[in-house]
Specification:
This is Golgi apparatus membrane protein TVP23. The chain is mostly helical. The chain is 79% helix and 6% strand. The radius of gyration is 34 Å and the shape is globular.
């Protein structure tokens, strides 16, 4: 009877040991599969990360089109006037889109100028509420496109001077004038927005501190009055 009981115990114990090893092997395989799946996942594209993908496309569309027309327009047509008109039209469209649409949507800034009666010009700025966070992808690409484009046109202007293609300097001059207007406008607008946010933050801090001091004095006074009464 004792031998029979030992055989039964051993026979019952052996499958348990084997089953435990098999389960651990399955868990390892599942872990490896999960790691492989995570490794194969690709990060989302820039347009998917953007809050305004259509606006982001148009932020680069016309300025890239003007640069490509300037570089490769001579391959399709030898008419300088046609290339000049196409470049200027795209530069004007780009100026309007950046000034009125992409700056407001991508970074929450807007600028414009008004002429006074005495002939002077006043710059006016609008900025978003600081409590509304920006999309970092939109902000980074907006400022990159804003500053890279005039740098490229400056390089083209230097090449025109050294290669004596003075007629193409007209295109470069128009491009730099329109691009630099947005650069100056948005740079000043960004500085004005930061000053407003800093002033508002300081006033809120001072208001909260003064409110806390007044509240503390009132609470101390009330506690003293109640203590003297009771």
């Amino acid at each position: 009877m004792a031998n029979t009981d030992r055989q039964n115990l051993l026979s019952d114990a052996q499958p348990m040991g084997v089953g435990g090893n098999m389960n651990s092997g399955n868990n390892n395989n599942n872990t490896i599969l999960e790691i492989d799946v995570d490794a194969n996942q690709q990060p989302p594209s820039i347009l998917k990360q953007s809050s305004h993908p259509v606006c982001l496309i148009f932020h680069f569309l016309f300025r890239v089109g003007a640069i490509c027309t300037y570089l490769f327009g001579g391959w399709f047509s030898g008419n300088f006037v046609l290339i000049f008109v196409l470049c200027v039209l795209q530069l004007v469209f780009d100026f309007w889109v950046v000034k009125n649409v992409s700056g407001r949507l991508l970074v929450g800034l807007r600028w414009w100028s008004e002429s006074r009666e005495d002939g002077s010009t006043t710059w006016l700025f609008e900025s978003r509420d600081p409590s509304r966070p920006l999309n970092p992808v939109d902000s980074r690409l907006f400022w990159t496109g804003l500053y890279v484009a005039p740098a490229i046109w400056t390089f083209f202007g230097i090449l025109c001077i050294f290669t004596f293609k003075l007629s193409w300097l007209l295109v470069v001059a128009v491009a730099l004038a329109l691009n630099m207007a947005n650069v100056i406008g948005y740079t000043q607008c960004d500085k004005d927005a930061k000053q407003k946010w800093a002033t508002g933050f300081a006033s809120n801090m001072l208001g909260g501190a003064s409110g806390g001091v007044v509240g503390g004095l009132m609470s101390r006074g009330l506690s003293r009055m109640t203590g003297s009464l009771f």
